Model the fold of this input.
Amino acid sequence: MKISFLSIVFALFMVGCAQIPEPPVETADWAAHQQQLETLTHWTLSGKVAVITPEKRHSLNIYWQQNGDDFHITLTSFLGATILDIKKTTTGTTITDDSGKVYFGQNSQELIRQLSGLTLPVDVLQQWIKGNPTNAIYLLDENNQLVSLTGQDSENDNWSVDYSDYKTIQQISLPHRLQLNRHNLLIKFAIQKWLLSLP
Done:
């Protein structure tokens, strides 16, 4: 039987179209998971963070304790020396630098940048680091896990975040690897441990 060239092309085209994945549809499972993340307001994580620019690369240990809207973040060197100790409460943010000097301000992100040169979007990162795409455009995978998001920080700068290596902690799926991109800045988190205080 003779098969025309156009028939072969059409068949190959249809095979190619069949391989294009459909974007996952949000389901009740995702809605329930996001509600879990919304109510998860007391948690602690520890791990490593790499800050990469075209000029420099810094690798630090991170300890982050979140209590509602308040947080305590400690960044240390691999030898354990404190680089920055950041505490936010309802009255403002207090930062202790590597020399033991204490600074106070109302804008956490701005104060961190002034003292260290590091741009860390801590206000939105409180949700994003859990895999909760608050006020962001996002993409889910077939398991209703967050793959990526694009959003803005408190200073209206654009960030993109990519997620991987999810693990279930106390029946909640949480990311253990994520990376934030903004202009020429790349911040990579490798979370080694989550501790959750569930209601």
User: Anything to note?
Assistant: The longest helix spans residues 5-18. The chain has one domain: 50-196.
